[in-house]
Write a structure and sequence with these properties.
single chain; 995 residues; 7-stranded mixed sheet; 24 helices; 50 strands; 21% helix; 28% strand
Amino acid sequence: MAQPFRLSRGGRIDRTRPIVFEFNGKPVHGFAGDTVASALLANGIHLVGRSFKYHRPRGILSHGPDEPSALLSVDRGPGRIDPNNRASVVEARSGLRTTSQNHWPSLEFDVGAVNDLLSPVFVAGFYYKTFMWPRKFWDRVYEPFIRAAAGLGKAPTVADPDRYANRHAHCDVLIVGAGPAGLAAALAAARTGKRVILADEGAEPGGTLLHDTTSQIDGRPAADWLAETLAELDARENVILLPRTTAFGYYNHNHVAMTERVTDHLSSAAGQAPRERLWQVRAEQVVLAGGSHERPLVFADNDRPGILLAESVRVFLNRYGVAPGRKLVFATSGASAYQAALDARAAGLDVTLVDLRLEADCGPELARLRSAGVDVLTGHTVVGSKGRKRVTGLIVAPVGSDGRCGGRRILPCDCVGMSGGWTPAVHLFSQSRGKLAYDEGIDAFVPSRSAQDERSAGAARGSYDLAACLAEGFAAGAAAAGSDARQDFRATETLTGFQPVRIMPTDANPTKVRAFVDYQNDVTAKDIKLAVREGFQSIEHVKRYTTTGMATDQGKTSNMNALGIVAGQLDKALPAVGTTTFRPPYTPVTFGALVGPARHALFDPIRTTPIHEWAEAHGALFENVALWRRAWYFPKAGEDLHAAVARECKAVREGVGIFDASTLGKIEIVGRDAAEFMNRLYINPWTKLAPGRCRYGLMLKEDGYILDDGVVARVSDTCFHVTTTTGGAARVLGHMEDYLQTEWPELEVFLTSTTEQWAVIALQGPKARAVIAPLVDGIDLSPDAFPHMAMRSGTICGVPTRLFRVSFTGELGFEINVPADHARAVWEAVFEAGRAHGITPYGTETMHVLRAEKGYIIVGQETDGTVTPDDVGMAGMIPKAKGDFVGKRSLARPDVVATGRKQLVGLMTDDPKLVLDEGAQIVTDTHQPIPMRMLGHVTSSYWSANCGRSIALALVEGGRERMNGHLFVTTPDGFTRVTVCEPVFFDVQGERINA
């Protein structure tokens, strides 16, 4: 179990639990608590990948989520292969198989490294300047080559066998980040009794305290304070601790999305535990304590394996008990790297430190480090590095007062820890639409003006001292919980402060030096300078032209250096350059977590009504309508679709039919301004509609085209029962909410979806009244007391009902709205009562035929998103004196009022037995040259047993002017002649509906 770079003691790993995993087919030994990165380093493995563009050898840069280079494909078992995992955050466990990426044929020998020799050609934006000629090469050579080279890693080819969960949660205070500031915030908020969620992306809470072995808090070691704090929080019932949980998106109304890694760290997941859980948290207050990111130094060949961030060296030493090297050189322009150097020296390592700052500019950290026996070179720059697949030396030189470099020297080493300062993690704050401000004292953008109920604390707002972080966190947590409590913490002083440097001074030709700014995308300082010289001044344009900050790390390590270089080239102050846009996700999120359980059968879930099982038992065949499974028709023995539908249609017209209309969308609109709200949304008026009456409503989009329709009943002065089309329910509710919340927030109106609360039983036909009369109490069913388009409340079979007298068939009809839990019992009672009258259940196909016989439209069938009320003959529904409503102004557009628009008409074929195809095109002359001029299309077409012939509805250019004229419709064999007629084929006078 050789781990040559594992320290003999220290760290938070469990040395009693050894593990073995694979890297490129070879065993790697480690301990429980290791990450893949720490275990690789413990085994002396620094070369872990190749860069994207130049295929340069790359190693581990960081210990955290900002790792840009050490991206591995991780195989957790059959079907569980994921590319582009950051080795620094993947928890090592036995059985894990990891492989490096972006090389061929092997990591050690990569043919693609020839790109490194061609780097003068592959400058920023080279793809915009090449592949231009010859033109025919694009399809045959250039595009195939580019597509083959694009991307990192290989996408999985088999289905993901894991399960993913989704949870919605509410809390009073959500705290993101469980470092010193976040823990103090959680303590303060929890002690008020408020509901608190504390989330941290790490395997265990603590942040920097997990590797801080020297600091004390309130007179005791930081580790002891951490353990006591976690014990107190864990003991409180009002606190939820979520380790391994990354907050990746901050949206409106304090909606924060987080992913919890539930089982990836386990060798075998217990039971059916999900791999990941997506948390969607709505918090009254949010505290952001996500810490900060260390900046790399920009110097020639700063990307060699073995060159790490200084604080990451400290983490590997103190948290994982791993020495990334035996002979270390720290290069810095600030104080924090001195602590890493002190810890490395305390671990018995050979340490040298190079500081760009002059000796007079250094603080007490200089004397402390020298007293520990470390050689410190102040006023020195780094001009390059030696080595290929691992760093072997750092090239340094003194910098004179004139900025010129003196004589070079090589410092032999097998590891470099570099630090160019710190950048607060403001990603989530910016996603919340908060405004940043530039703080010159720390050379960073920090949170300034919040847009939501949020506050930042600790390093996330630029405070790097431990005591300050604790105090700020406690104050933020208390304030978020509605308290003004404060607490001062006594803590060991933190080594802070740095001298900003964009590019390390060098004596080399800047045009020849490749000093990397963005490690993953191989963007160098000279690439950024080139972009500015070529006219790109906006930082967003520079970002896209060079691809800096566009990798999976989203610029966590590169952004500030890139901004500084652009500002220097433009000779502008850094705030004038601004920042790029911080977009979610903060770190990569699996598709599985986003999709959750919505796949396979749940991807397109089937919704059924309370009558579904009854219909199934009575032989119904079903069709899918939106997400609903609806009874299509009820065939008897020996009947096909056409025979069954013909029988059902005749039964409804001559006797009584029963139909399940529960899938209709239903929305309850309640409030003092409900009628005014309806007036603004629908084309027809609602103010004078009396309670107990119904009205057909037509709703438009902003462009004046029909969005949806349905019957609306006024239940009371302040309550409307709105119905929508089956497939349009969610769309209509969203449309209503959009206008209510954004355009008319002054209206006192409340919207509630009641689609699944009310089941609807439609009883249609001349005998409908006779069937329900014995079952209804509290409602006078006589025609005078209960006319067409009325609604009454009462009971049926002892069950409360909203009884509508409405019809989508043109017959005497009732729609019985009852609570869904009682729907099956009421249906069966009505069906039993109807046996004496020859009651017949019918399905959606019969419903379509019956409504087409009467010329009733279906939104989405007679409309296509470009149809106006006038096009379907409903312009008369709009009173001339009606005020504004959605879409009104668009109805006056020239193209909407122009002659020749397609209009709804009926069509009758010369051959009454020929049923036209829906969608068939319509022309005036079958002999015109191709392409023919199409006048419109057939929208609905059926065989009508009641009419004894085929019928069709169509949208035809200038249709109403073509009445009784002849047109031609395409058929599979050619054309057939049709006569244009009114779109009503049965009971033209409409007498039956008022029976």
